[in-house]
Write a structure and sequence with these properties.
The complex is a heterodimer.
Chain A: E1 4-9, E2 13-20, E3 23-27, E4 36-37, E5 40-42, E6 48-50, H1 52-56, E7 65-66, H2 80-85, E8 92-95, E9 101-105, E10 108-110, H3 112-131, E11 137-142, H4 148-160, E12 164-170, H5 171-180, E13 187-195, E14 200-208, E15 211-220, H6 225-244, H7 252-268, E16 274-285, E17 289-298, H8 299-305, H9 307-324, E18 333-337, H10 344-354, H11 367-379, E19 390-392, E20 399-403, E21 407-412, E22 420-427, E23 436-442, E24 452-459, E25 471-478, E26 484-490, E27 496-497, E28 499-501, H12 509-526, H13 530-561, H14 563-581, H15 585-609
Parallel strand pairs in A: 1-11, 11-12, 13-18, 15-19
Antiparallel strand pairs in A: 1-2, 2-3, 2-4, 5-6, 5-7, 8-9, 9-10, 13-14, 14-15, 16-17, 20-21, 20-23, 22-25, 23-24, 24-28, 25-26, 26-27
Chain B: H1 13-24, H2 31-35, H3 43-57, H4 70-88, H5 91-101, H6 107-136, H7 138-159, H8 162-175, H9 180-210, H10 214-227, H11 232-245, H12 248-261, H13 266-278, H14 282-295, H15 300-308
The chains are: A alpha+beta, B mainly alpha.
């Protein structure tokens, strides 16, 4: 069977997994980590950096480092969600021709799907390195609450990255597949509480003999770990601004340092009761010289400043349970997904809402990617019979059209199992009318304008007839991916009508193809030359030798050799590692020479001191 | 597609037959037959039948398999069972469907549906009787009555009849002193009532003061202050009336409270300046007048007073 990977394309971190010989496995990236930061940067030398490398240089290159691009996916530039996110982003986002955001990095600008595609490409390369063969098929997860535009943008990103996206699935359902795979459950109701970096989802599922039925789902696409970080950032920056008259959030570099410190403090407070934030030389005062930021943050304070966020998640849970017509007591297991669920306050709130300890059976960081891999495996199984497991997912939003007076007419209600279709008959209102406009929206408000606009469709070339005599049957399909398509048929003649999308911020077919080609070109330039490969091997041999020597070196350093030699070696090693990962062949040659010299000198020093034994 | 023979497809022949049969009988079979369950199946059985069938009919079960022209039949079949499930899993929708479709059901199903409706009516009746019985029993009756009183009080309060609402809540609290909601609502309404009393007392006091009846005005303002100590009008009213009467010491005891309740109110601060000047507290008088002048630099009265001091 050809490999298929599952990708959890997260706001802060991404994970890739696959099913190998029937066993779901998380694929470590080429640096050996299971989580790859969803960070993309264009370095000063024009090189594209993704993941850990991009994240590490974020502080010194904040303006050309893209974080949390998921928040921009499928959003219109003018949308409230995007406008609210803008001030917190260190990079600049400009408006495109179609009300679509473009991210400016150096002299080029990229759409959010293009940036996401860079992350996906990286994950694809990791998977290919791990599996030792080409990987073309993928299942990508999205928050259950993602609307049509956001799903399409994600699918586009996959295509740009050269992946055949066989399915977009919802993160919480994916997590439940990871939970249910290989577990023989007769019948059970479970729920998934998914609080990730940028989004919150809550889903209630019914499991019966391998069929996973989503009973109801709901969430908030603008609520996640980053909002918790933002509270800490404000808490740090506001008193600082009052005392020193400097708003750290205005400076891109200080903001990036604040962001890192806030996230670190938050994570530490999941284990400790109190932590110190220490940011020396965070800013320069025009009169008093360099300024430092130091603060003590306790878990209590953090819980107090984020209490409303936790309460928001609980309100969503209650709404979804009432949609599913279940009580907390009827749920057999509560699954927690997403890094933010590690916060003790979140854990306690969930525990008290459901009156039980959440399940420890799944890994909150990896379950979503694992479930996606499982779904890919299930879809492509080649046994030629029905599979043992099946996922019945639902559409998270009601789909409908705008009708006279600006009202919203529901055609497919939310929580309907997908794939599904429904139709609506339109009739002409004027004599000889030859075209009609249909505005398709997604959401729950009674007013069309308050819902998400999916697109405006023009029905063209209608038969000329007196008003009311032409009936057009418009068919709305929602695929298993949760993606909407619209078609129309003239009821009287049975003729298919052409439909043109006139308002949508998504990428056009040409744009996707061009971006995919550009990505392929980039991949070709990455194919390394034999010279570099040889240097890389030498460098890796040297890394290993240093590693083996290290315990003796630290011992010698304490006994006469001195710390300075050790630090010099450490610095040279990290430079060389960076050159390996960035494929800087020339620079690496110099590093190898330097490392070899150092290695010889250090070995000599250890032997001379006669203390190297052991 | 037309060239594909039955044998080369990934679909088992029996499923091919089933799909053709389902398509041929579209619109002719009931939701029950579609899911393969008797018409008296309970909610759990409906769900299990739907999930079992989904495993065979959901398009994902045959994803990227060679299903030839059966692709559309599969997706249609799945949508039909999903629609049937949607109706039968919702009690109200199911009752409506049963009533509408009764004539098309087979004889056996007809009796089953009738029996189910009968059972449902019985269940509802029993549940209702049980509730009433509980209400009549000693402990429950008290709590039930308290609950009813509470609910009617909330309704009255929403209609603006606060007085009645408070009376009902007081009786409810006697019946069920444990329930927090009752005590909370009562406290909330009483606070609102006190505030309203305070406001109306101030209006009445203002009228008296305008007629020159300062004693009566002071008494009313005092009552207003007791009802709602945060009402700035009340303290200021007493101080003003006392000042009008020339009872400066009384005015001086109230003016700090008036200033505290409305620290940015210039008129109050001016009055404070006059009162402190009258009781010879020069320092505070100056401070108050300076405040007025900071706000309105060319305030003549304040300027004159300050000069005199």
């Amino acid at each position: 069977m050809e490999p298929v990977i599952g990708i959890d394309l997260g706001t802060t971190n991404s994970v890739v997994a696959t099913v190998q010989a029937g066993v779901p496995t998380v694929i470590p990236n080429r640096s050996g980590y299971r989580l790859t930061p969803s960070v993309v940067a264009i370095a000063k030398n024009g090189k594209r950096l993704v993941g850990q490398l991009a994240r590490r240089q974020a502080v010194t290159n904040a303006e050309r480092t893209v974080v949390a691009v998921k928040r921009l996916m499928g959003r219109k530039y003018s949308s409230r969600a995007l406008q609210e996110a803008l001030p917190r982003l260190p990079y600049s986002v400009v408006n495109g021709d179609r009300d679509d955001p473009h991210i400016v990095l150096g002299d080029k600008s990229y759409t959010p799907p293009e940036i996401s595609a860079m992350i996906l490409t990286e994950l694809r390369l990791d998977a290919e390195a791990f599996l030792g063969e080409k990987v073309g098929k993928a299942v990508i997860t999205v928050p259950a609450y993602f609307n049509d535009g956001q799903r399409n943008a994600t699918k586009d990103a996959g295509r740009i990255a050269g992946l055949d996206v066989i399915r977009i699935i919802n993160e919480p359902t994916s997590a439940s597949l990871a939970y249910g795979f290989g577990r023989d459950v007769q019948e059970k109701k479970i729920c998934v509480f998914d609080l990730g970096g940028g989004t919150f989802d809550f889903t209630v599922l019914h499991m019966f003999k391998g069929v996973f039925e989503v009973m109801a789902t709901g969430g908030d696409t603008a609520l996640g770990g980053e909002d918790f970080d933002a509270r800490i950032i404000d808490w740090l920056a506001e008193p600082f601004a009052r005392t020193h008259g400097v708003d750290l959030r205005k400076d891109k570099m200080s903001l990036q340092r604040l962001r890192d410190a806030a996230e670190k403090a938050k994570c530490e407070l999941s284990a400790a009761k109190s932590t110190e934030v220490n940011l020396p030389f965070i800013a320069q005062s025009p009169t008093a010289g360099p300024l430092h930021l130091q603060a003590q943050l306790t878990r209590d304070m953090l819980e107090k400043m984020t209490d409303d966020l936790v309460q928001r998640t609980l309100r969503v849970c209650e709404q979804v349970m009432s949609d599913a017509k279940v009580h907390a007591a009827q749920l057999g297991d509560v699954l927690m997904v997403g890094g933010q669920t590690r916060m003790p306050r979140v854990h306690d709130a969930v525990k008290s809402l459901f009156g039980r300890e959440p399940s420890k059976n799944i890994n909150p960081d990896e379950a979503v990617a694992v479930g996606a891999a499982v779904q890919g495996h299930l879809l492509l199984n080649e046994t030629g019979k029905e599979s043992d497991m099946l996922l019945l997912d639902v559409t998270p939003h009601s789909l409908g059209i705008a009708i006279a007076g600006g009202y919203f007419s529901r055609i497919i209600p939310k929580n309907t199992t997908v794939p599904t279709s429904a139709h609506h008959i339109f009739t002409t209102v004027k004599d000889g009318q030859t075209s009609a406009k249909i505005t398709v929206v997604q959401g729950e408000s009674e007013l069309a304008a308050q819902n998400e606009l999916l697109g405006e469709f023009m029905l063209m070339g209608l038969r000329e007839a007196p008003r009311g005599e032409v009936d057009i049957d418009v068919i709305f399909d929602i695929s298993s991916d949760g993606i909407v398509s619209v078609s129309a048929i003239d009821v009287q003649t049975g003729q298919r009508q052409s439909i043109t999308v006139t308002a949508s911020s998504g990428l056009t077919e040409d744009e996707i193809r061009n971006a995919a080609a550009a990505n392929e070109d980039w991949l070709l330039t990455q194919k390394s030359d034999p010279e570099f490969e040889a240097r890389k091997n030498t460098a890796e041999r040297l890394f290993k030798e240093f590693e083996e020597l290290w315990p003796r070196l630290t011992y010698a350093a304490k006994n006469g050799l001195g710390q300075e030699a050790l630090q010099r070696a450490q610095a040279a090693l990290s430079v060389a590692r960076l050159q390996v990962s960035q494929k800087e062949s020339e620079g690496l040659a110099g590093s190898i020479e330097r490392l070899e010299r150092m290695l010889g000198a250090l070995r000599g020093a250890i032997e001379r001191s006669g203390q190297g034994g052991g | 597609m037309a060239a594909t023979t039955v044998g080369s497809l990934d679909l088992p022949p029996e499923l091919q037959r089933e799909l053709k049969d389902l398509a041929a009988r579209e619109g002719k079979i009931s939701h029950y037959e579609l899911l393969g369950i008797p018409a008296d199946a309970d909610g759990g059985a409906v769900r299990r039948a739907y999930l079992e069938r989904s495993k065979r009919l959901h398009p994902d079960a045959w994803y990227r398999k060679n299903v030839g022209e059966y692709a559309t039949l599969l997706s249609r079949a799945f949508q039909r069972i999903a629609a049937a499930y949607q109706v039968l899993s919702d009690d109200d929708a199911r009752a409506e469907y049963d009533a509408e479709q009764a004539k098309t059901f087979s004889a056996a199903d007809k009796t089953r549906v009738e029996k189910r409706m009968q059972d449902r009516a019985d269940d509802e009746r029993r549940a209702k009787e049980r509730r009433e019985r509980l209400m009549r029993s000693k402990g429950f009756a008290r709590l039930g009555a308290a609950r009813q009183l509470y609910e009617s009080a909330v309704e009255l309060a929403a209609k603006g009849q606060r007085g009645f609402a408070i009376a009902e809540l007081k009786s409810a609290r006697e019946l069920d002193p444990q329930r927090k909601e009752i005590a909370q609502k009562l406290a909330e309404l009483e606070k609102e009532a006190a505030k309203a009393r305070s406001v109306s007392a101030c209006v009445a006091a203002g009228e008296r003061a305008a007629q020159g009846d300062f004693d009566r005005a002071i008494a009313l303002y005092t009552a207003a202050h007791q009802s709602d100590p945060t009402n700035p009008e009340a303290a200021r009213g007493i101080a003003t009336a006392a000042a009008e009467k020339g009872e400066w010491p009384l005015a001086a005891t109230w003016i700090p409270r008036a200033v505290e309740a409305a620290p940015t109110h210039v008129e109050t601060r001016l009055l404070a300046g006059r009162v402190y000047a009258a009781v010879k507290n020069k320092a505070r008088a100056k401070a108050e007048l300076q405040f007025v002048l900071d706000k309105i630099p060319n305030h003549e009265e304040a300027r004159a007073l300050l000069k005199r001091l």
